Amino acid sequence: MSSSVKIPSDTSKGRIALVAIPRRLDKVLSYAIPDRLIGRLSPGMRLLVPLGRSKITGYLIGVSVQDGSHSLKEIIEALNDTPIINNEILELARWASEYYMQPLGLMIRAAIPGGNNLKSREYFKLTDQGTKIKATPNSMKGRILSVLKDKTGWVPISELSKDIGVELRENRLTRILSNMKRDGILDEDIRIIGKRDPSRKKRKTASDIKHPASLPSLYGREADLVNEVKDLINKGTYTPYLLAEIKKDTRQRIYLHLISLCIEKGKGVLLLIPEISPNLSLIKTLEDTFSGRVGLLHSRISEGRRFDILSRIREGKIDIIVGTRSAIFAPIDLPGMIIVDEEDDPSYKQDKGLRYNAKGVALKRGERLNIPVILGSSAPSVEDFYYGMTGVYKLRTLPEEEGPRIQGSKGSNEPANPRTKDPSTPQPLIKIVDMRGANGRTILSDQLNSSIANRISKGDRVLLFVNKRGFSNSIICQDCGYSFRCPDCALSMTYYKGLKRLSCHYCNKSACVPETCPDCGSSRLTEVGIGTERVEEEVRKIFPSAKVVRLDKDTIKGSRGQGVKGSSHRTLEPANPGTLRKEGEIVIGTDIVLRSPGNHPFALVGVVSADTCLHLPDFRLSHRVYKLLRGLIDLAGKGEVIIQTHNPSHHAIEAVSDPTNMGLDRFYQKEIGFRRELGYPPFSSMVIITLEGGNAERCMDRSQRLGKILHRNLDKGTELLGPARGYPEILRGRHRWQMIIKGDRPVQEIIRRSMEELNTEASTSGIRIDLDIDP
DNA sequence: AGCACGCCGACT
DNA sequence: GTCGGCGTGCTC
After folding, report:
1. pLDDT value of position A728
2. How many angstroms separate the CA atoms of A402 and A415, rounded?
3. How many angstroms separate the CA of A689 from the C1' of B8?
4. Going by C-beta distance under 8 Å and a sequence separation of 6 or more, which residues neighbour residue A337?
5. CA-to-C1' span, A52 to B5 (A)
6. Residues A63, A33: contact at Cβ < 8 Å?
7. Which nucleotide across the nucleic acid strands is nearest to A179, CA versus C1'?
8. What is the C-alpha separation between A485 and A506, in angstroms, rounded?
9. Could you say which DSSP state residue A227 is in?
């Protein structure tokens, strides 16, 4: 059915459509434009095009005159009569695709929330000739014939395969079907399934809108900062700002004012946040303040809803977009400013799926649109802090003392008053406990133990932080050292004592715990490492009457769901403040504690383990530990913090106990020094190349070849590390090899060339090459 | 990522 | 011969 048309050489201009396909395909494909669509296509439209045997949605990126004597397939239809994305977004996606070296079609698909819902399904029926044919009854062909003879009309392939009793995607079935079609025995029809235009639900209209809440008051230098940015918004100047050392409440107050300024000027705003659930109150405030104009975009918003938001953006009804990563591509008209809150959060750069950095895209978009880009964080990324210090970004800080601890009541329009400043800035007492001397089986040090006892006897709340869920990191055999590893991932499996199971946190595979060592038969199996379950067990043993709550991914119902509606996150507020006070409570949690809304201060925060992964190969780990500890210290309010560690001299841990602003300057000075020494970002631009494949030798061979080619092609000022085994070495049954390029300038072009060279030298089929630019 | 095509070994 | 598995390369 695929209509191959030969375009005559005298065809008038613009008869070929350049279409980006949402597949791992580096090329842009050309399609013939049928007469009925000539003059009706513009870039950014979704097109239904044939690809191989199926039909899929592609994105028109341009029109060209005939390029060769290629025989092209024809566009089947245009899926909308207007472009689904505008030129600005198309160009931005194109930039991102090139910079991050990701396929353009996938980038565009990521940029368009929803609207990728078209799939095709094959239907078959016998031709007249086919009804007469005879075949050996038991052969595949015979079975297909007899099934189809009993049916009338088109039969979907799913039904066909079920009646025959073969797997839907089995090779031989499709093979024989296409042979039969070629021989004229069968007719095939490929139909589109999936809804085209999701029905539009009725939305709030202007009359439903509540009276907007007024803006919160600004304090001290906050107002100066707002005025400064206001000028830039008015003038329309690309200026990256780094708002560092500014607490969340204060940042949000500033954002609200800036957003309001944009709206007054008839400009829109993009506000990126790393995750929805910890920001529910911000979203609520925005909706109350700018009712009806706020659109929320994130991965769990339903297709229909997204489609709706997009059309309301297009109609100009929504001009404030709050969203996660992919919201950076939201097609608002005339944005006046982009805000990336918690700019150091790794989720802007998540490592699965399409690799692009939303913060990088935000800066690029701001540059193109000539608008300020605000990066906000309480403890910014080391790179951005350095850029701030060196003037690449405008660094603005509002150290805590200047902000009020208690936010002014909503709607109070009192002017900024320096006297509202709270004299008693919280200064928790921080103690570092060196665990190196302790018995390996010690979970809670004496100091932590006695502090817990002290606090709960007073009815206070205690938080014990553990960075691993489960009971223990792994189980090993004391006699032969055998450790239980995931069969697919070359990593130890986490032990769950309650469930009596082992689970791989990388691929979710789980297994029973054997009684004896499968290697030597010994029954002396022992747990290694500390997880939340184990701490819980220990705490219940030592404090049998205390109320103990465990809070990690395993205890949160529907932990995968982070939707705004019906979010199942437990908050950390005491269920019943009046009565609970007496008893005290011990909360044992992972970093989920920091991401849950509604935290109330704990009298004691005990960090049971925070540094157990400091040896992992990630140059940003120190920052992560530092940030984590800061967050935990904040949870202690004026209380007490006890940090147990095996690395007491690590700069992240040393710094955090510094009374002046948790050693922020000290940490960054030191960390920037390390980065400079080792040539890590911001002193280089970095690319991580990972080769992954089921075949170990092949994977090693190809990565070594690529390493050699890169080595040859890279010039002075760049450095190639590796290839070396990845971490983990094997993931989901695929062997992994890795190399890192550190360079003083972008190396995308060299990588592209080198990969082409590799392809001419040896086949890379069965190997996935994953490029991570600016990881 | 699909999916077809080609090669090969086994079955009958 | 026909079936089925696997590796390789292409998709306008």
Report:
1. 85
2. 15
3. 35
4. A229, A233, A258, A259, A262, A267, A269, A270, A371, A372, A373, A374
5. 13
6. yes
7. B4
8. 11
9. H
